[in-house]
Structure prediction request, 365 residues.
Amino acid sequence: MDSTLRDIGFKLDRGERLNAGDGIALFECNDLLGIGRLAQSVRTRLHGKRVHYSVNLHLNPTNICVTRCSFCAFSRSSDDPDAYTLSIDEAETRIARAVERWGINEVHMVGGHNPALGLDYYTELFRRVASRFPEVFIKALSAPEVHDLASRSGLSIKETLERLKKSGLGGMPGGGAEILAAEVRKQICPQKISGEEWLKVHETAHGLGIPTNATMLYGHVENYADRVDHMMRIRTLQDETHGFRSFVPFPYCRPGLNAQDRAGNGATSVTMSSGFTDLKVLSIARLLLDNIPHLKVHWPATDFKFALAALSFGADDIGGTNLHERVMREAGSLAPAGLSSGDLVRCIREADYEPFLADSSFELR
Prediction:
């Protein structure tokens, strides 16, 4: 094993916490199998051979978004020919069909900053779903979406989240984090909320008993220090709130298809991350984020075969069936548009792990 990894391994054996310098050293190390072994030892200690999965539907009520982040291939302007907004009835019908056809236990609901959709739209939709399908966990609205709703409603973040929770919101995804460093955000999402504001929304959600995920979008203009800083800031908040359930890193997907590149403004030096990098990021996240219980591999951003390999590099959560996932597919992902629960269970077992049905609360329901 690489000498750097031996020293880090000794720290882990002594129960010492890794620091930012250790994180940089891990990214600079090319011993992927050594890093993976360390991460897998942590994963095994926490979860044994258990692999968590959900039967989930992705529902995007709208693709209209005024922020138009440069890396996003999903968002549209209101006058684009393929822009859309679902009515509450249409959204409810899609969820009902998914319950009937696939027996989903979770709906993952994100869209964009659409000025035509206010807080009342979401509270009414959540009320209908929670009343009609109490078995379905509602994971919805990224931190930037919540911030946008609060701003347009004239409410505080806390008041907005209280109303959403009362209506049936069970948890929040981790979207919108991208890279928390200000200089990176200026380049890739200048109109989105700051990293500090993203953290504040999640801190507020945790204070209200709303569990959330945290994400990291890597492989664009950030460097190793930015990635480590991102993870350390999330770890610091978790020390205070204990509200993050899972960390979900995913790569910048298919350069050339997003809004920035379609407009001819893309950085041509940006290329798709390799499987080597993707496995390294996952493993390092498992080692640095010692206080976040679950590490999720979001297979629509890579592919399902990669996700199965990731289970041996620190990941314990393979996500869900991801039915009707659109955000990554419109960014060029070649992963399937969804899998059956039977496919998930079979593949987990073939990889010599034990499938465990859960939702994003990771509580038995």
Q: What stands out?
A: The CA atoms of residues 65 and 113 lie 4 Å apart.
